[in-house]
Amino acid sequence: MAKRIESAQNKLVKRLNGLRLRKNREKENVFVAEGIRFVSEIPEDWPVECFVVSQEFAAAHDLTDWERRAQTFLVSNSLFQEVSETENPQGILAVCGKISYDTGELLEKKNAFFLLAEEMNDPGNLGTVIRTADACGVDAVFLSKGSVDLYHPKTLRATMGSVFHLPIFQNVSLPEAANALRERGIPLYAAHLRGRQYPYGLNLRRACAFLIGNEARGLSEEAAALCDSYVKLPMPGQAESLNVSIAAGVLMYEVVRQRCIPRQT
Fold first, then answer.
1. Lesser CB count within 10 Å: N end or C end of the chain?
2. Over residues 12-41, mean pLDDT
C-alpha cells in the first residue's frame, strides 16, 4: 500500500528537489523519470528505488503494479507540483538507478553501429538524437566531455523512453573512443561541411560510426581529425547547415536504408 507523505519537509521530498541538480544525480547514481508514458517505458529489469504519485493520479489509476515493483509514496497534488519538473505534471514519477554497460562487448559486436557526439549542449536536441538512434538500431551512443547531462529532465523527456533502450555513455574521451574503433577496424565518419563525399556512397552495411558536433560550432578541428573521412549532406537550398538532430537523423537513416531495404536488381 502506498505510504502517504504530507510534509514538504519530508526527506524524500527534499531529496527529489535536490535531484534537480546534476551533481546530486551523479553523486547518488540515480535519475528521475516523470510522466505516465515515460514511467511505463521502464523495463521490468531496470532498477527502480521508488514511485511517487499524486492524490489525483491515485484516484484515477490502479497502483497495484507500481506497489508490487517498488515502494510507492502518495503525496498531495500541490506537493507533487512542488517536486515536479513539468508545468502540468501527470502525477507520477520514479526514482531510477543508472545502469552500466560493457563497452568491450559492444565494440566486438558484428556490424556494430555507433554514434558519437561532441559537446552537444541542447537537452532537446540530445534527447531527439537518442530517440532517433533507438529507432535506427544504433548499438550505443557516446557523448563527449562537455555535453549536456543525459539525465537532465528535458533530455529525458525528449528521449520518449529511449534512454531505457540502448547503451549511452557520458563524459567520453573522443580520442580514446576513436582509437578503440580504429583498433577494431571500424571506420569513423565525421559529419562535416568540408566533406567531399555523401554518405550514400559509403558501405554502411558493415560496422561503422558517425561523429556529430556541437549545435553552434559543429565539430572542433581536434575531433574532426580523429575521423577516417568527412561526409556531407546535399543541401540544394540556401540554408548553410542543418540542425544537428536532423543531420544525425539523415545519417542514421542512411544506415537503416542500406541495411534494411533490399537492393533492387
1. C
2. 96
Q: What is the DSSP letter of 215?
A: T
- Computed on alpha carbons and rounded to an integer, the radius of gyration of the chain in Å comes to 21
What is the band of 264 on the pLDDT scale with cuts at 50, 70, 90?
low
Identify each DSSP E strand in the chain by its residue range. 3-5, 30-34, 48-54, 71-75, 92-97, 113-117, 140-144, 168-172, 188-191, 208-212, 229-231
User: Is the pLDDT reported for residue 175 higher than 90?
Assistant: yes
Of 21, 251, 262, the closest CA to residue 117 belongs to 251
Under a CB-based contact definition with an 8 Å cutoff, are residues 127 and 154 in contact? yes
Q: What is the number of other CB atoms lying within 10 angstroms of the CB of residue 189? A: 22
Nearest CA to 189 out of 104, 105, 113 is that of 113
Q: What average pLDDT does this structure show over 169-185?
A: 97
Stated pTM of the model:
0.93
Which DSSP state fits 89?
Answer: -
Neighbouring CB atoms inside 10 A of 109's CB total 13
Amino acid at 52: V
Number of residues in the chain: 265
DSSP designation for 216: T
